[in-house]
Design a protein that fits this description.
The protein is mainly α. The protein contains six helices and no strands. The longest helix has 23 residues.
Length: about 140
C-alpha cells in the first residue's frame, strides 16, 4: 500500500512539473525560448548608445478605436489563436477579471508559469492590435 502511494505521488508530481519550464532550462543549448516580443524591435547588444533598448517602442493605442466592436472582435480572434493555456490565462485574468491566485488554482499552474503565460498572451494580442490599428 505504501509503495503505491509513493508511485502515485511521484507520477502526479512528474505531471505537474512537466508543465513548468524552470529558468535554468532557458539557457540550455539548443533551447530557444519563445519571444514575447519580436527581437527585431530592440536595438542590438553592441549598440553604442542604447544596447538592448527598444528600436521600435510600443505605440499608444487610441481609446476610441479600442472600444469599437470591430476591435473587440479582433481581440477575441487574437485570443482564440493563442495556445490553449495562454488563451485560458488571458481570458480568466483580463476578460473575466479573475485574480492571479484564482487562475493558478483553476489551471493548476505555478505563479511564475501563470505570469509568463499572461505576459506572452498580452504581447501577442497587443501585436495584433498594433498591426490592426497601424496607420494605413
Amino acid at each position: 500500500m505504501g509503495l503505491r502511494i509513493l508511485v502515485n505521488t511521484a507520477k502526479t508530481r512528474a505531471q505537474r512539473e512537466g508543465r513548468v519550464l524552470p529558468f535554468s532550462a532557458l539557457n540550455s543549448p539548443g533551447r530557444i525560448p519563445e519571444a514575447a516580443v519580436d527581437p527585431d524591435r530592440f536595438r542590438p547588444e553592441d549598440d553604442e548608445r542604447y544596447p538592448g533598448h527598444w528600436s521600435v517602442p510600443p505605440r499608444d493605442l487610441p481609446e476610441e478605436r479600442l472600444l469599437a466592436a470591430e476591435t473587440r472582435q479582433l481581440i477575441a480572434a487574437a485570443i482564440d489563436s493563442l495556445p490553449a493555456t495562454q488563451a485560458a490565462v488571458i481570458r480568466l485574468r483580463d476578460v473575466d477579471g479573475w485574480s492571479s491566485e484564482e487562475v493558478r488554482n483553476a489551471l493548476d499552474i505555478s505563479e511564475v508559469n501563470q505570469r509568463v503565460l499572461l505576459h506572452r498572451a498580452r504581447a501577442k494580442v497587443r501585436r495584433a492590435l498594433e498591426d490592426y490599428l497601424a496607420p494605413a
